[in-house]
User: Fold this.
Amino acid sequence: MGYVDADAHVIETEETWAWLADADKAHTPLVVTQTWGHEVLSEGRLTSEYWLMDNRVHAKDRNIGPDTSPESREMRDVGARLAHMDALGIDIQVLYPTVFLRPAVRTAAAELALTRAYNRWLADIWEQAPDRLRWVVMPSLLSLDGLRDEFAWAKDHGACGIFMRGLEWDRHISDPYFFPVYELAAELDMAVCIHSGTNSIIQHDFCLEDTSFSKFLQPGLGAFQSLLAKGVPGRFPDVRWGFVELSAQWLPYLHNDLKWRLLRTGKPAPDNFLEANNIYVACAVSDDVAYILNYAGEDHLMLGTDYGHNDQQSQIDAFALLRDRNDIAPEVVTKITEINPRVLYGF
Assistant:
């Protein structure tokens, strides 16, 4: 069938915000340039550009994968992106954002305007390669009005999942506030995709000078534990849940944590939390996948390249590296790289 890259990215540019509705132009992000102060290097290159969005400042030219071309990662040349996918043996990529991995804005009006513009930019990209470039829709979660229409429109234009972070507007995603989102996911047959990142200004800015683990990984691991400890997936049995760009090495630890928490409260603990809750996790090639399979099983792991980025989860040749390992049976590699992500994303 061909590899499915369960986690690939787009890098937002000024073209992204050209899709803002006329009434929302006041929310257009500005590009600001650092002219003095502490210099920041990325891959030996001085970074100096930032987005100014709703009076919040975010690095624009950091975490850029040197193994991808600007035309490809910024989707200015979809043909170039497809050619690179061909060279990597990738049949389909599922596209995730970059700037929205952090709390990009402060207000409901800005969130609604910018997520709608982003979604229309991704829909235009999908229309240029509908069989190969799929994407997850950015929801406006500070106000849930209009979500059904936006999700239904996005699905008709190539979206295969709903993007969420472990914390959304300072709420755990196990909060009943988000149950209408999960009801729509079931109704529209769209996966709920929890990606590394946070949408809590308090948590993000508190950890600003700490490592990326504190800012971007901890919220996702906490979301997994919270959702299962509170039985949220069981309330929505038709929803498929994906955990992306968090690796999978933590699964044995949380399996043990959840097992004993549930048993102490008299609740049953399944042998396989992923299978019992319709959850899929994107592993990393640095994971001890053979060991993790004892907890995850063969049918609930995926693989992503983190295409376009340059961080601890990025591995542009992840599929070749996993294929060449001798500790995982070839048929299991096929499930991880081809079959399981197709089930999650509904291909």
